[in-house]
Every structure is written in structure tokens, then in C-alpha cells.
Amino acid sequence: MTSTTNVPFDQPVRPPRRPGARTSLSDGLAGHRNALGVLRLVLASAVIFSHAFPTGGWGEDPSKGWTRGQETIGGFAVVGFFAISGYLIAKSGASSDILQFLWRRALRIFPAFWAVLCVGAFVVGPIAWRMSGHGLREYIGSGPIMYVFQNADLTIRQWGVYDIFATTTPYGETVGYSVFNGSLWTLALEWGCYLLVAAFLVLGVLRHARWIVPAVAGVFWILSIVFSVAPQVVGMVAPTLADPNKIKLTLVFLIGASLAVYSRKVPLNDLLGVGAGLVVVVTLLVGGWVQLGYPAFAYFILWLAARLPKRIQWIGAKNDYSYGMYVYGFLVQQFTAFLGWHLLGYWPWVGLTILVTAACAWLSWHGIEKRAMALKDRGPGRGLDWLAPRRGSDAVGPSSGRPVPSNVDSPTAKDTAS
Predict the structure, then answer these.
(1) Integer Cα distance of 301 and 50 in angstroms
(2) How many other CB atoms sit within 10 Å of the CB of residue 216?
(3) Do 276 and 59 contact (CB within 8 A), yes or no?
């Protein structure tokens, strides 16, 4: 999930902290004084390293064996993305009305997503089709168009076009059908989490009943336990939650959101941070990663964002390439594997794919994402008052929306999500 960027609201002026006062998570992550941008780039790159194993023909990511089958490096990175996103999106929701919130979230996620669908269908697809010995006239038809429209709402219903990559890439040979971009499935779950925050906003939870956020997180925590013991029970009682990823990723998102709504009370403590990191390592190696590791990891990654050296905090603070790295990584790997680059070996190929993906992310940010976010305060971005006629001099300012409630911090860091 940036100069014209992603800080949607001004940070309120606060009195200086008293000497000896406890530092909170909110203090540590205020404004751009954090390394969230760096961490998200690292997480996006980790997904590429993880996916290189199946897309390059080296089988499953071996890290899954190291964690007793609990997680891969790529899955670990996605959990980190959702924890950070939960924190930032809850902050955004706390200081906006429902129209502003949905408008800004849609601007952040949909334009770049639609662009990567079009790049797959109308750039990569025709090139691969022609290089496979087919005529371009044969490619033109419902296949590429349906690929875009079937997936346009973030739910991936069509993974590829015709049989492209099905027999010409290691991953296609493994799954037996065409796949352009195997990473995009998480975005529908992320949008679902955004809608959950939108419901909190409409119901006044973020302003008047913050305790409901960790309470809902507790419900998903219990569901994760039930699913681990008797997965069929969850499917029978709540069919929409039959997918374990929906339970787990919503859980870690809500943990991040819980840390956000209580960020002024959550201490930023180095002993807690190191301890949380140890819990993450132990649960990955021994067990209990979801139930114990998720809360520890959510705190650890936010603590790390506050504690990493200031000299690297500029990375990703102005230009956020992490979303582009994530949505283009798999597509680049599939296409370069089709070209045979994976035959160079794991490390050379991963290095090349990261360079190509970084170029795509640069183009995505400067050509689409940044331009879309420049519209965040226009039209619906002005809030519900934009829908109603102004009422003289007592009308609310164009981009004010609701005032920031006194018991919740205003958005910190970047109002983006991957």
C-alpha cells in the first residue's frame, strides 16, 4: 500500500515532550521520521526472492521447511505488509470521513493495479504470443480483454491469457495453466481490510469505541486457532472465511490497527522490541507463528521502523516504490523465465529481475501512482461536505472532513499500503 505524496493530513503541533517522559509508538513513528518506506521496499524484494524458487523451476521456497511448514519468506513479507498497512490505514481512517477515506484508498490501490493488468494483457502477452510463433491477429480477441475486466475489482478470476507461459515457463509447467501475475491475489484481501476500517469509521468505532478494534482482532485470533484445529468447522459456520489466508491476514492487519488506535499508550521500548523479535524467531522455528508470532511481529516491525538509523529514513519517504515492486515482481519473473534468463542461475536471475522490477516500479510511481494520489484532496477527497451545498461562512473547509478526535493520533508516516 510521497511528495504529492502520501501524507494526506497535516500533523498537529504538539508540545515538546517532557524530559524523562515515556516515548510512545506514536512519537517514534510521527511524520516522516521513520523507516517504514525502507522496510516496505525490503519486504517487496523478499517476495521476489521467495517467488524466484517456483518461477525459476527450483521448487518450493526452502524457508518453508525451516519454519516447520508455517511460512515462506514471501509469506513472511506479506504478513509484514499487512501489519504496517493496518497501522497506517487505521490512522488514515481516524482523521477522515467515509468519503475521503474510500476515495483515497481507491486512488492508492486501483490505478496501478489496473495498469499492471493492462501491461500483462497488452504488452507482455502479445510479445510472448508472437515469440511463441503465433500471429498477433490470433491474439486479438476476448482473452486479453477479459483478463483485464474479469480481474478489475481485485478478485483474480482469470490468471492468464490463452496458454501463454503454460508450457514455456517452469511455473506454468508446474501448475499446468497460464499465469501472468501470481502475486495479485492478496490485494482483494487488503481491500477487504480497508472496508472493515470503513465500517469502523461509519460506526464511530475509531472515535468513540476504540476497544472494538482489538476485540475484533481477538475474534480473528480465536478463528485462527479453530482453523488450525478443525478447519472444516470454520468453513461450515462461515463459508466466506474458509480461506485461511483471509483469517490470518485480516488478523495481522487488525493487530496493526489496534496498535494504531492505542499508539499514544503503547510504549516504544527497546527491550520490548528485541523481545518481540525473539518471539518471532522462536515461533517460526518451533511453532505458534500465527497466534504468538503475529502480535510480536506487528510490534517488532513498527519498533524497527522507529529505531532504524535516521540516515536511511529518506528511502521511500518521498517516492514509494514498494507497491510497484510488489505488483510487477511476479510478472517480470514469468516473462524473464519465458526468455530463459532463469538459466543463468538463481542469484544472477534474481538480481536481474529486481533491477527490471525496480524500473517498472519507478515508472508506475511517477507515471501513475503519484499522479493518482495528487487527486486525493479533490472531488470526493474533500469529504462529505463536497456532496452538500455550502452554508455560508460556517461551512467546513474543503478538505477538513471530520476533526481529528482527541483520543486518536493523526496519520503518521505515509498513507499508503501494498
Answers:
(1) 19
(2) 19
(3) no
Is the overall model pTM greater than 0.70, yes or no? Answer: yes
CA angle centred on 73, ends 71 and 79, rounded to 5°: 70
Phi, psi of 194 (to 5 degrees): -60, -40
Cα–chain center distance at 222: 23
Per-position pLDDT tens, the chain of length 418: 433 333 333 334 444 555 444 689 999 998 777 999 999 999 999 999 999 999 999 999 999 999 999 999 999 999 999 999 999 999 988 888 999 999 999 999 999 999 999 999 999 999 999 999 998 889 988 899 999 999 999 999 999 999 999 999 999 999 999 999 999 999 999 999 999 999 999 999 998 999 999 999 999 999 999 998 888 888 787 788 888 999 999 999 999 999 999 999 999 999 999 999 999 999 999 999 999 999 999 999 999 999 999 888 888 878 999 999 999 999 999 999 999 999 999 999 999 999 999 999 999 999 999 999 999 999 898 888 888 765 444 444 444 434 344 344 433 334 444 4
With CA atoms as reference, report the closest residue to 219 among 253, 177, 251, 182: 251
Grid cell 508446474 in the structure block, residue: 174
| Alpha-carbon distances, residue 261 vs 89, 91, 258, 343 (angstroms) | 10, 7, 5, 49
Tell me the three cell numbers of residue 386: 463536497
Which residues are paired to 24 by β-bridges? Answer: 267
Euclidean distance between CA atoms 173 and 179, whole angstroms: 10
Per the CB < 8 A criterion, the answer to whether 234 and 247 are in contact is yes
176 Rama sector, left if φ>0, alpha if ψ -120 to 50, beta otherwise:
left
From first CA to last CA, the distance across the chain in angstroms is: 3
CA dihedral (95, 91, 316, 2) in degrees, to 10, reads -10
CA separation for the pair 61, 52 (Å, rounded) = 8
Query: How far apart are the C-alpha atoms of 139 and 291, rounded to whole Å?
Result: 48
Candidates 177, 178, 182, 114; CA nearest to 149 is 114
Buried-exposed string 255-267: b where 16+ CB fall within 10 A, e elsewhere: bbbbbbbbbeebe
- 255's CB contacts (< 8 A; 6+ apart) are 83, 86, 217, 294, 295, 298
Distance CA 120, CA 162 (A): 12
